[in-house]
Hints:
Helix content: 25-40%
Number of helices: 6
Largest sheet: 6 strands, mixed
Radius of gyration: 16 Å
Order of helices and strands: EEEHEHEHEHHH
CATH class of the domain at 9-126: Alpha Beta
Distance between the termini: 18 Å
CATH topology of the domain at 9-126: Nucleotidyltransferase, domain 5
Amino acid sequence: METKPPRAVVVVDLETTGLDPQVHHIWEIAVRRIEPNGEVSPTFSAFVEHDTSLIADLPESFQQDHSRRYDPDHALSAAALADHLRFLLRRDDGGHRPTLFGAVVSFDAGFLERLLDGPLWDHRTRCAEALTYGFLGYDPGGLANCLAALRLPPNGSAHTAAGDVDAAYRIWRHITRDRPVLN
């Protein structure tokens, strides 16, 4: 028996041009929504138009990743992304704002708040690493270590938005399945 979340859960991950949401931009995003009835949407992922000069602020390996993967010809405008996110972050049928979940989701939330002019999710966000820590009783470290500690397959696309959303989603499912919901 699988436990259903009491409100929608939106799993999100971003790749950005730096660490400051007031200065830097989102360049890649992935989102997956879990409805309160357990229905799971396909993962939405997209590149996002941004000021590419800001990539110079990133460590070399992140600059190389951006250069290798970013495709400006298939990037959404920030306005188009915001419209799509408003749909994915909509209130559920019970009128509840969704729970935002992901790897270090507080980081992503700052960028999303700027893009959307405020939060559209419940104020209680959930972090994959913190959830894993609480479940295991010790801190295994980052997302890859959480997967390993939970004996889940490794992230085949680490440090991509879609790969990290998949990893966080698998952590959520592993920890919350067959567990009672406490109200």
